[in-house]
Amino acid sequence: MATERLNSILNHLTPSKSGLSSITQKNPDDVVVTLAIRTPLAKAFKGGFKDTPLDYLVYSLLKKVVEKSNLDPQMVEDISLGNVGDGKAAYIVRAAALAAGFPNTTAASSVNRFCSSGLKAVQDIANQISNGSIDCGLAIGAESMSAGGDRLANPFHDDILQNQEAADCMQPMGQTSENVGKDFNISREAQDRFAAESYRRAERAQKAGWFDDEIVPITTTIKDPKSGEEKQVTVTRDEGPRWGTTYESLSKVRPAFPQFGDRSTGGNSSQVTDGAAAILMMRRSTAQRLHQPVLAKFCGATVTGLAPRIMGIGPSLAIPKLLSKFNLNLQNDVDVIELNEAFASMAVYCVETLGIDPDKLNIRGGAIALGHPLGATGARQICTGLSECRRQKKKVLLTSMCIGTGQGMAGLFVNEQL
Q1: Apex 295 CA angle, 293 and 296, nearest 5
Q2: Using an 8 Å Cβ cutoff, are 320 and 327 in contact?
Q3: pLDDT tens by residue, 229-275
Q4: DSSP string, 359-387
Q5: Cα(162)–Cα(167) distance, integer angstroms
Q6: Catalytic residue status for 372
Q7: Where are the alpha helices (DSSP H) in 105-170?
Q8: Residue 131 contacts by C-beta under 8 Å, 6 or more apart in sequence?
Q9: Contact between 316 and 337 (Cβ < 8 Å)
Q10: Beta strand pairing status for 136-144 and 78-82?
């Protein structure tokens, strides 16, 4: 341990040859991921979790964390739940943790930065580990979109609405997608072709079993909408992928937001979904002491803001900001990219603007084919991305998403399971 500490100090003092060599160094104080698992993603309102409340979804995943990690739950000092739609999320995660076997000494809280909430939870736990507040923590992202969520029912105060960008924060997400399509000339055809590829990749990955090592089955209760009869089911796979989806079939789908435009549809936009994901993190020296497997190193994450009316292009700003902090080049240094497909309009824009290699992007499909459970996506992308890195034996994972009200976030990880 003394030798590792000395090497850590020398590494900080000695300039590295490149950003890539710097982030791939291993130091005792690194924040590492030791477990990354998720539930299947189920169709909201009609899928396997339609009758599963958020508290049970979180509780079920927490029990899986205890089971899969082989870690004494008392070692987990804090749990952060990323969730968008439930104002009671802080109550839920605390009670669910206690019921799942975590002791009352394990703290818990919730966080909400809309679609990046899962990554925000990861960042918050990682920052606590990095600054010495805790040695081990758990980040969760979870969303029951079947429950409806907290919508902005009333306008802001008149004084706030006098500012146009503040007023734009009230624009529906579909409207912001149409804004991006119009402002940057992202055609309906380009969006449908992107969506078709997302479905093709998700189908390929599902048939090949690529998702198997990231998904844990969840047993729950489902109610028949006609008879009201309840039965127990075990949800084992993502419900979003529609095998055989083509550009031709997507091109026939009617616009979803005709009052705002004619380019975004139910076929080229993210699906409304229920699901959850969990990322267990600790200091590298703690992982070694507890004999925990190190899946990956968390390098960092960052957030940026932009005009709310074109919130979808947030990743095109957050990704360069993050990579610049680590002296990395998107084309040469990053191996796998998980970009949240909130809408094909923003995805196409980000790919074209940043020059993203399609062969590195959403290799297993994205939110258009898999679904976008708002608070869970930021953590779900990490599970999927690290699994894909392991499959390909690649190192550097970049995740990113746009955020309602005009923000973007990105996270950086180094896979260590080569």
Answers
A1: 135
A2: no
A3: 999 999 999 999 999 999 999 999 999 999 999 999 999 999 999 99
A4: GGB-TT--HHHH---TTTHHHHHHHHHHH
A5: 7
A6: yes
A7: 117-130, 158-161, 164-168
A8: none
A9: no
A10: parallel
Phi first, then psi, for residue 24 (nearest 5°) are -90, 0
Tell me if residue 136 is catalytic.
no
Amino acid type, 255: P
Q: Find all residues with CB under 8 Å of 18, minimum gap 6, and list them.
A: 327, 333
Active-site entry in 299, 372, 383, 389? 372
On the 0-12 / 13-18 / 19+ scale of CB atoms within 10 A, 87 is exposed
Query: Is 350 one of the annotated active-site residues of the chain?
Result: no
How many Cα atoms occupy the beta-carbon half-sphere of 130 within 13 Å?
15
SS3 154: coil
How many Å apart are CA 302 and CA 177, to the nearest integer? 23
Catalytic residue among 115, 136, 299, 389: 115
CB atoms within 10 A of CB 331: 10
Q: Write down the pTM of the prediction.
A: 0.95
Tell me: the pLDDT tens digits for 369-385? 999 999 999 999 999 99
